[in-house]
Amino acid sequence: MSFLLxxxxxxxxxxVWPRTIPLGYRMAHSGVIVATAYNSLPNQTxxxxxxxxxxxxxxxxxxxxNHFPIGTKLAIEGYKGRVFTVxxxxxxxxxxxxxxxxxxxxxxxxxxxxxxxxxxxxxV
Length: 124
Hints:
Layout: H1 3-16, E1 25-38, E2 62-65, E3 73-76, E4 84-88, E5 97-101, H2 105-111, E6 114-123
Parallel strand pairs: 1-5, 2-4
Antiparallel strand pairs: 1-6, 2-5, 3-4, 3-6
C-alpha cells in the first residue's frame, strides 16, 4: 500500500473510533448515563466510608453503580485514556446512574450532576 493510502485509513479511523477507548481494550457497547460524584465522607456512604461494596479501598477510578455489575470497566468521555471500574453500589433508589469517586470534596461538588457518554470496555 502506498503511504498516502495508509495515512488516509489511519485518519479515517481516528475520526470514527472514540479517542476515549484506552489501549488494550475494545468497546463492548456505549450509551449515555447520568453521573454524579461522591467522596468517602460518612454522610455520603455507609458505615465503612473507605471500603467499597466489593471489598476494595476507595481510590481514583472507582465507580459506584447499581446499573452495571461489579467489575465492569468503563471509559467516560472527557477522561481520555482512563479506565474506571464499578466496585461500589449506590443507594437502592438509584438505578440508571453512576457515581464517580473523587478524593477531594470540592472536586466532587464541582463535577455535580451531568449526563456523560460511557463505553463499556472489554479486554482485547
